[in-house]
Design goal:
468 residues, alpha/beta, Rossmann fold, N-(1-d-carboxylethyl)-l-norvaline Dehydrogenase, domain 2, Single alpha-helices involved in coiled-coils or other helix-helix interfaces, 3 domains, 7-stranded mixed beta sheet, two-stranded antiparallel ribbon, globular
Length: 468
């Protein structure tokens, strides 16, 4: 028999995704060089007429109906190129290859260009939601050939998460590497939101003295309101998880060293390349790097005094925290979506920001109630490139920024680092300032490097022989 869909890479993500495809009514064939992974899929699938697997490339390709639709879920980088090269001798013109990993967008552009010369279609597709999302419904972000997307559209729409209104969280986003780029920025926003959540937790436990039970209750309550989101939901659950290897809660036993795979760093680097400020994301990447320096941090902590924590009303602190986290989340989305707007012009992706917000509403890691308002804002005015200019968000920010200022000041008095929230606040203050001190910087640049400057009262570029 011929199978509808092929999957290369049967690790946790690949196996869960192909099982999702099979359960959605499409026969599927998987391939992995690891025999145990193949056997695990066959065992879990239960019916080889619906889902099967092999370790042999030629057998795998031959088992698929034409045009073949083959998705790869393997580590980004050389592994993707290796899989493509192993498949190419067995493919026909018109077949479709799909990279579902977190590939760097420039690699996707390179691969699409090379494969198109051989008549092979290629899509770079962002998949968010982790292992559970892959199994039960992820958010899917495809980019590449619009005509080739039609081959896989029925399958993707069947397996994607459904939002509350029944709309599948998948849509064709644009040409070339648009899908991988959107997923990259999605992950950058994710970095920012996670950092902000961690800072709020830190202030509440250190300054407020809140127990894990209290934190569980507070985050659970927040998840019933305007902060309703996947990250707030799982954070509330984390605080109640018991340590199976000892007494107490697991969160207190986890080492404070955060790792990263690179997508946050890529977001930050590219934002600098195209000239869009994303300081909440930048500092989130930096804080993961600082966290890795644990040995140095422990030694430094012994060298310096820290101020005493100024006690304050616990309920008031919790109220500040809720408003600050909401303000910070808005800033993280503002920055990431602004970057997408600029990248859309820079790389000719023709992105629809309302559509992107729409497919992030379910399945993905940054899904949140706030995305409904974001989608609405861009639908009402597609010319808005930064949410801080949207009328509804002006009200949201005005109602929360005051508490964010109070919390940042309080945390600094207590020597509790809140760089994500502080950077969000500084970003807001700078973005909304009609006058910045960069006139002095331009004067300095012209003084030592003759780089010229512009004037407020005249058009053109000017240079001064300073000090003469």
């Amino acid at each position: 028999m011929k199978y509808d869909f092929g999957m290369v890479g049967l690790g946790v993500m690949g196996r869960n995704f192909i099982l999702n495809v099979a359960e959605s009514g499409f026969t599927s064939m998987g391939m992995d060089l690891n025999k145990e992974s193949v056997e695990a899929l066959i065992s879990e699938g239960g019916d080889t007429n619906k889902v099967n697997a092999t370790t042999k490339t030629e057998e795998f390709v031959a088992s698929l109906s034409s045009p073949r639709k083959i998705m790869m879920l393997v580590p980004a980088g050389k592994a993707v190129d290796s899989v493509i090269n192993s498949l190419l001798p067995h493919l026909d013109k018109g077949d479709l290859l799909i990279d579902g990993g977190n590939s760097f967008y420039k690699d996707t552009d390179r691969r699409e260009e090379a494969l198109s010369k051989r008549g092979i279609h290629f899509l770079g597709v962002g998949v968010s939601g982790g292992a559970e999302g892959a199994r039960k419904g992820p958010s899917i972000m495809p980019g590449g050939s619009a005509s080739a997307y039609q081959y896989i559209k029925p399958i993707f729409e069947a397996v994607a998460a459904d939002a509350w209104d029944g709309e599948p969280c998948v849509a064709y986003l644009g040409p070339k590497s648009a899908g991988n780029y959107v997923k990259m920025v999605h992950n950058g926003i994710e970095y920012g939101m996670m950092q902000l959540t961690g800072e709020i937790y830190d202030v509440l436990r250190k300054a407020g003295g809140l127990s894990n039970d209290e934190l569980h209750k507070i985050f659970s309550e927040w998840n019933e309101g305007r902060l309703k989101s996947f990250l707030v939901e799982i954070t509330s659950e984390i605080f109640s998880q018991k340590d199976e290897e000892g007494d107490g809660r697991l969160i207190d036993k986890i080492l404070d060293k955060a790792k990263q795979k690179g997508t946050g760093k890529w977001t930050s680097q590219n934002a600098m390349d195209i000239g869009i400020p994303v300081p909440t994301i930048d500092i989130a990447v930096t804080m993961r790097a600082i966290s890795a320096l644990r040995e140095e941090r422990v030694k430094a902590d012994e060298l310096y005094d820290r101020p005493d924590v100024r006690k304050m009303d616990k309920d008031e602190l919790v109220d500040w925290a809720e408003q600050s986290l909401y303000f910070g989340f808005i800033c993280a989305y503002c920055q990431g979506l602004h970057q997408l707007a600029e990248a859309s012009k820079e790389y000719e992706y023709h992105l629809d920001l309302a559509l992107i917000a729409k497919i992030w509403r379910a399945g993905c890691i940054i899904r949140a109630e706030l995305l409904e308002d974001i989608m609405k804002a861009f639908n009402e005015n597609e010319q808005i490139v930064n949410l801080l200019m949207a009328p509804d968000f002006i009200n949201k920010v005005n109602g929360t920024v005051g508490s964010a200022r109070k919390l940042v000041l309080y945390a600094m008095e207590c020597a509790i680092p809140v760089p994500g929230l502080a950077n969000s606040l500084t970003y807001f203050d700078a973005f909304t300032a009609s006058e910045l001190p960069l006139n002095l910087i331009q004067a300095q640049r012209d003084y030592f490097g003759s780089h010229t400057y512009e004037r407020k009262d005249k058009e053109g570029s000017f240079h001064t022989e300073w000090g003469k």
